[in-house]
Amino acid sequence: MTSRIPGFYKLPPRERLAALDEHNDLDDESMAVYRSTGLTLEAADLMVENVISTFALPQAVAVNFLINGRERVIPMVVEEPSVVAAVSNMARVARIDGGFVADSDPSIMIGQLQLMAVSDPEAVSARLTEALPRLRDEAAGVHPRLQERGGGLRGFEVRQLTYDEPGRPVEHMVVLHVLLDCVDAMGANMINTLCEHLAPLVSELTGEEVGLRILSNLADRRLSRASVSIAPVNLATADMDGVEVAERIAAAWRFAWADPYRAATHNKGVMNGIDAVAIATGNDWRAIEAGAHAYCARDGQYRPMTRWEIDPDTGRLEGSIEVPLQFGTVGGPIRVHPTVQSNLKLLGTDDARELAAIAAAVGLAQNLGALKALATDGIQAGHMRMHARTVAATAGARPDEVGRVTVELVRAREFSVERASAILDDLRSGR
Ligand code: MEV
Question: What are the φ/ψ torsions at residue 59 (nearest 5 degrees)?
Fold first, then answer.
């Protein structure tokens, strides 16, 4: 199997699928799924309420990825042009020197039980701490199969919080954190069930009222990391040498570190990659977004998810990412959605930690692609090329004409439907 399929992007979609099959030996079931619209109405009706239809988005694959020495074809579901092209290009650059290295912590989710408006937080914390062995015993019976799979309770933490917004009465809370290794599940249902199960006992043992019982999406016990090392020469463009490109990428990163306004956009680009993998694999991308962004504010200022620096000794561009990624390969819509199943097979993993690590590498690649474009030609050139294809099609170009009309629109730097119609007329009349 290989993720390196030269000329892949130039093929029409059906031929692309055939080329993917040829290089990766897809099973018949996946081929049938990729040729179909995927989710049936009946299956959709099992997923949410009030279903009337299904909604399609482009399913693409990013190629060229080498992660921890293994070839990976990455399924991505995304509506934005340039995202898949950018990650594939950056993966091609990264593989020259061995690709990405990536890993994830165990899949530990945090659940929160809030003891509301306590008058003596020290005393309540002490009672709660004393009650932990009893809570541990109670928790052990809640998800017995999870323990068989190597997961289960990983501990408790007792926290004291104060609501002290100026001008309002001060309120003290004690919050119990429950840590649960959910193995291959994203874990929302598991941790919420456990929190709700423990709540009456927590209330009984502390004599306090329990308020919220819910997971935290700031899943900072399940961090994923990826890194890559790039020789600047491999970043050169037609107009700029690689050392300058690398320096500009590092400068762009420092801008994001210093400024939340830039960091938000920088991180949006990272999530272009991570979300596309999350959607393709049936994961809850809102949870992943919430956790990843919240983690970026851990030192009090919102910072970039990635880091890009030039190594002073080697001159190489070193990139890394660390974010909480609450991915699962079981549960939720994952079993119900046929395309998700095929995508996991294509990725070659049913391990949630591995999937999250892959997504981290994709996020890093996406960020490199965005920063490289921003540091050199700007992103509009690539975007406008994709946009030109839509304009050509809107002007009535047939699939075999779109390419030529697009080239002319880009050459003229004008992207109106009128211009596309004129180009099309010229083309058809042989002018
Ligand atoms: C666009 O979807 C993402 C970018 O704005 C990210 C960035 O600015 O780093 C290009």
Answer: -105, 115
Q: How far apart are CA 425 and CA 431, in angstroms?
A: 8
Torsion angles phi and psi, residue 372, rounded to 5: -65, -45
- 372 catalytic? Reply is no
Give the whole-angstrom CA distance, residue 53 versus residue 148.
39
Closest by Cα among 342, 347, 371 to 357: 347
**Beta pairing, strands 306-310 & 171-181:** unpaired
Q: Which long-range contacts (CB under 8 A, 24 or more apart) does 17-21 make?
A: 20/61, 20/73, 20/346
d(CA 258, CA 255): 5
| Cα–Cα dist 428/294, whole Å | 54
**How do 223-230 and 171-181 pair as beta strands?**
unpaired
| Residue to mutate (ligand 1; options 83, 272, 380; most atoms within 8 A of CB) | 272
CA distance 189 to 331: 9
Helix or strand run (H / E) with residue 76: strand 70-77
Could you say which of 80, 122, 157, 425 is catalytic? 80
Cα-to-centroid distance, 341 and ligand 1 (Å): 30
Cα–Cα distance for residue pair 206/133, rounded to 1 Å: 14
Q: Whose CA is nearest to atom 2 of ligand 1?
A: 269
Reduced to 3 states (helix: H, G, I; strand: E, B; else coil), residue 143 is coil
**Positions in the chain short of pLDDT 50:** none
CA dist 275 and 83 (Å) reads 11
Q: Which amino acid is present at 171?
A: E
DSSP of 304-323: -SEEEEE-TTT--EEEEEEE
State if residue 269 touches ligand 1 by the CB under 6 angstroms criterion. Answer: yes
- Which atom belonging to ligand 1 lies closest to the Cα atom of 80? 2
**Residue found by looking up tokens 């694959």 in the block:** 61
Read off the pLDDT of residues 83-99 as tens digits, 9 standing for 90 and up.
999 999 999 999 999 99
What's the pLDDT at 403? 87
Query: Per-residue pLDDT tens for 195-211?
Result: 999 999 999 999 999 99
HSE value, Cβ hemisphere, 13 Å, CA-based, for 390: 8
121 burial level (CB within 10 Å; 0-12, 13-18, 19+): middle
Q: How many CA atoms lie within 13 A of 34 on its CB side?
A: 26
